[in-house]
Amino acid sequence: MTRTPIRWTTVCLDCPDAHAAAEFYCRLLGWETTVTEPDWVLVRDPAGGVGLSFQSEEQYVAPTWPEAPGEQQKMIHLEVLVDDLPAAVEAALAAGGRLADHQPREDLRVVLDPAGHPLCLFTQ
């Protein structure tokens, strides 16, 4: 079987403000904005790898964390490996995130990005 070359390059997150979301992730991860349009922004790790893009959606509804019947469910969450969990949480909050009320485990912290997407910070 011949395989067609396919390469995964980006995960796109819908949000109410693409520019605000991009700024948060650039501050948190040390990434750079590579393409900017009025309602869409692409950011990438300068070292390479899969990037993130953000698309403004007028009808965006933030997910509920943790999930609740009848509420907007999350469709995706990002997981970020960190060396120092308290320092990473502090950096995420300083970048514009907020600590979720529900924290399911002691070895990770769920931070909500400016659009309400859950972001799991964890150590190995």
Helix content: 10-25%
| SSE arrangement, N to C | EHEEEEHEEE
The low-pLDDT segments are none
According to CATH, what is the topology? Answer: 2,3-Dihydroxybiphenyl 1,2-Dioxygenase, domain 1
State the CATH class.
Alpha Beta
Report the biggest beta sheet as strand number plus sense, adding barrel if it closes.
Answer: 4 strands, mixed
State the distance separating the first and last CA atoms: 38 Å
**Total domain count:** 1
The shape, in one word, is: globular
Q: Say which CATH homologous superfamily is assigned.
A: 2,3-Dihydroxybiphenyl 1,2-Dioxygenase, domain 1
Strand order of the largest sheet: 1-4-3-2
**Total number of β-strand segments?**
8
How many helices?
2
Overall pLDDT: 96
Radius of gyration: 15 Å
Query: How large a portion of the residues is in β-strands, by DSSP E?
Result: 25-35%
Structural class: alpha/beta
Please state the second-level CATH architecture.
Roll
How would you portray this structure in words?
- With 124 residues, the protein is α/β, with parallel strands linked by helices.
- It has one domain: 2,3-Dihydroxybiphenyl 1,2-Dioxygenase, domain 1 (Roll), CATH 3.10.180.
- The chain is 19% helix and 31% strand.
- The chain is built from two helices and eight strands, in the order βαββββαβββ.
- The chain has helices spanning 18-29, 85-95; strands at residues 10-15, 32-37, 40-44, 51-56, 78-81, 98-99, 108-112, 118-122.
- The strands form two sheets. It has a four-stranded mixed beta sheet, with helices on one face. The protein has a four-stranded mixed beta sheet with strand order 5-8-7-6, with helices on one face.
- α1 (18-29) packs antiparallel against α2.
- The longest helix is centred in the first third of the chain and has 12 residues, at 18-29.
- The protein is globular.
- The model has no long low-confidence stretch (mean pLDDT 96).
- Pfam families: Glyoxalase_6.
- This is VOC family protein.
